[in-house]
């Protein structure tokens, strides 16, 4: 089972008619028609509505909502209504609410407030999912099931402590193995009974917040456990759905690069990935592209859904910038370019009250069709209708892989003795940006991914080496590929214990270097790095982290220009088999990262698409029938003109383009060029 079967890219979003009287529904559907909205997500937060008391289930209103959507010809993404538990449940079973990191038992309120280890919560949420599915499983308009909503909210209660201990028993088998993994001879931490183990929190191993822990192994395992505890609630609801709906695909909406949950652990259990895209500002195009590629990589390249995006503003930040004219359309097509097979909004109509009443919506409080936001939404809806199913199911033919690893993210940011200023996302984004800038398609994949099909594998901050990843990276270069890794890589095993060997541990043979020392400084310290490869030479800045690298078999490509290690290697390249392994030992600025990556790409004759045109993004999707569609997305506030390097037809306008033609792409404009021979 993969994605829902649809004739075109679904367009619409989160719709909550239970908040409105009947006359508003009538107005909504007239406006949905005007905007070509064909899909609604229903019932996400309807638990209290459907189950107002422990033994009472009332589908009267939801039946009317579903019946109206069907009568209006809409597809339905049907939620299990378990996005937030009702007040009566918290009153009857106080243990259902979370205990937070500081040890406080929450009372009823907000959302993300359910203990993932609570048997009562799991039983009742699964039962609600069972009843929702049983009621609507036979409805052909239901094209997908939406479980929960934006899972999150770690818990540290006694139920979670007991669940953690059981999880540890299954993982380690014995206290001896656990004590070894956690290095508990340090600070008299040896455990002699499973019941002695406490969840790592502000009351136990942590100080100054979740990223400061005395025992990284304990905290790392608790984050793994919490990811899987929340997953168990998802799989319980999915199993309940499957009792009456064996074929309709099931998903839940992820939150992109969300640190608390390892989405790679969840991916096998979803029929298709979906996520909520809420960029923090107007200049997040690279961050969004990286996250789209990460979501696509969760299911081995299968298209995903954008389950939520705002048409205008959010309501969850200190400041909530408005999407400038054209940005919503541009960013919607960017999602499609990177593999989205659905574009849905939160919210379809603005709520009257509570914390999201000023969150952007397709339809504002005034219910008007002549607002700028509504006109732009309608424009995208019309374009999707014209596009039809032309790119549905299309895949990305990437020859470059970027490894993304939640365990490394967790470990590198909670380890003392390195640098609290080095942030995993920022480093990964810098290497991704170097590829994005030159129009290279990238698969963002887990460290467990089969790397056989890639010419280039980029592994920034691969701090933790799990399984046979080092051997598989060696295999990439042995057959002629290139591997790029960075400072702080190859430091620890899967228990977060240092390797008893020179840094970069098992990557040392591949990299052809050892790291003798390292120097972490504040952002005010800048060390210039001279990069040279043949006649190609550039000087760039480096900051935050500087490794003192001793070459073994590697050649020096970049050298430091200051401090006592001036003249020593900062960047190296090692011939390994028929390929190369690059090691970047310094926190290079973007210009340096981009210089290295262009050298890597040049060796493999990987196509660079319009590398000299700033902020012109390109991506290719290949349809099931073999057609190639080139997306051109202009992220600039002014038009750009390029010379066509291939012939084709723009699927949005019908314009025919011939190789050599001048092609103008409007400010924040897009083209979808179906290539022709």
UniProtKB/TrEMBL annotation:
Residues 14-387 form the Glycoside hydrolase family 42 N-terminal domain. Residues 616-675 form the Beta-galactosidase C-terminal domain. Its EC number is 3.2.1.23. Residues 398-607 form the Beta-galactosidase trimerisation domain. Pfam families: Glyco_hydro_42, Glyco_hydro_42C, Glyco_hydro_42M. It is an enzyme of class 3 (hydrolase). InterPro entries: Beta_galactosidase_C (IPR013739), Beta_galactosidase_Trimer (IPR013738), Class_I_gatase-like (IPR029062), GH (IPR017853), Glyco_hydro_42 (IPR003476), Glyco_hydro_42_N (IPR013529), Glyco_hydro_b (IPR013780). This is Beta-galactosidase. It comes from Catenulispora subtropica. The lineage of its organism: Bacteria, Bacillati, Actinomycetota, Actinomycetes, Catenulisporales.
């Amino acid at each position: 089972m993969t994605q829902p079967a649809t004739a075109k890219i679904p367009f619409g979003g989160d719709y909550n008619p239970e908040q409105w009287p009947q006359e508003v529904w009538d107005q909504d559907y007239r406006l949905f028609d005007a905007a070509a909205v064909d899909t609604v997500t229903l019932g996400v937060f309807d638990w209290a509505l459907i189950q107002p008391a422990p033994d009472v289930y009332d589908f009267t209103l939801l039946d009317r909502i579903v019946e109206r959507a069907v009568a209006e010809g809409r597809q339905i993404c049907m939620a299990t209504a378990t996005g937030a538990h009702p007040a009566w449940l918290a009153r009857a079973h106080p243990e259902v609410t979370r205990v937070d990191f500081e040890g406080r038992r929450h009372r009823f309120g907000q959302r993300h407030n359910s203990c993932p280890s609570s048997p009562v919560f799991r039983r009742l949420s699964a039962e609600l999912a069972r009843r929702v599915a049983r009621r609507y499983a036979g409805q052909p308009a239901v094209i997908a099931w939406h479980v929960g909503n934006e899972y999150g909210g770690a818990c540290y209660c006694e139920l979670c402590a007991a669940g953690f201990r059981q999880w540890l028993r299954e993982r380690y088998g014995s206290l001896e193995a656990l004590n070894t993994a956690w290095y508990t001879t340090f600070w008299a931490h040896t455990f002699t009974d499973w019941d002695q183990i406490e969840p790592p929190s502000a009351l136990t191993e942590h100080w100054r917040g979740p990223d400061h822990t005395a025992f990284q192994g304990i905290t790392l395992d608790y984050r793994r456990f919490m990811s899987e505890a929340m997953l168990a609630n998802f799989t319980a609801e999915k199993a309940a759905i499957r009792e009456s709906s064996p074929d309709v695909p099931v998903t839940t909406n992820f939150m992109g690069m969300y640190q608390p949950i390892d989405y790679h652990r969840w991916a096998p259990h979803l029929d298709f990935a979906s996520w909520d895209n809420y960029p923090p500002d107007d200049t997040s195009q690279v961050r969004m592209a990286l996250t789209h590629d990460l979501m696509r990589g969760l299911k081995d390249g299968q298209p995903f859904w954008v389950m939520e995006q705002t048409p205008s503003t959010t309501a969850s930040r200190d400041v909530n910038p408005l999407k400038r004219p054209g940005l919503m359309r541009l960013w919607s097509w960017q999602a499609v370019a990177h593999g989205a097979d659905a574009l849905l909004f939160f919210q379809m109509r603005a709520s009257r009250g509570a914390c999201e009443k000023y969150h952007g919506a397709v339809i504002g409080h005034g219910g008007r069709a002549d607002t700028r936001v509504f006109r732009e939404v309608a424009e995208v809806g019309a374009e999707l209708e014209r596009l039809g199913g032309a790119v549905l199911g299309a895949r990305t033919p990437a020859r470059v892989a970027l490894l993304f690893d939640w365990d490394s993210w967790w470990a590198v940011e909670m380890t003392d003795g390195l640098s609290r200023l080095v942030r995993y996302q920022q480093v990964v984004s810098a290497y991704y940006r170097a590829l994005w800038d030159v129009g290279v398609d990238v698969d963002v994949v887990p460290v467990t991914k089969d790397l056989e099909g890639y010419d280039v594998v980029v592994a920034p901050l691969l701090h933790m080496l799990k399984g046979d990843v080092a051997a598989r990276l060696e295999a990439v270069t042995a057959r002629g590929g290139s591997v790029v890794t960075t400072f702080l890589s190859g430091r620890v095993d899967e228990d977060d214990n240092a390797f008893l060997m020179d840094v970069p541990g098992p990557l040392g043979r591949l990299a052809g270097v050892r790291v003798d020392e390292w120097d972490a400084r504040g952002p005010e310290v800048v060390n210039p790095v001279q990069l040279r490869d043949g006649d190609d030479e550039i000087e760039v800045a480096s900051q935050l982290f500087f490794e003192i690298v001793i070459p073994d078999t590697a050649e020096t490509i970049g050298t430091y220009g200051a401090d006592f290690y001036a003249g020593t290697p900062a960047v190296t390249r090692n011939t390994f088999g028929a390929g190369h392994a690059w090691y970047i030992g310094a926190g290079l600025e973007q210009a340096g990262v981009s210089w290295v990556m262009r050298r890597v790409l040049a060796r493999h004759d990987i196509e660079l698409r319009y590398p000299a045109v700033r902020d012109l993004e390109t991506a290719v999707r290949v349809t099931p029938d073999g057609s190639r569609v080139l997306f051109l997305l202009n992220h600039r506030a002014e038009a750009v003109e390029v010379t066509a390097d291939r012939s084709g037809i723009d699927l949005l306008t019908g314009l025919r383009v011939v190789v050599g033609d001048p092609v103008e792409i409007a400010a924040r404009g897009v083209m979808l060029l179906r290539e022709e021979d």
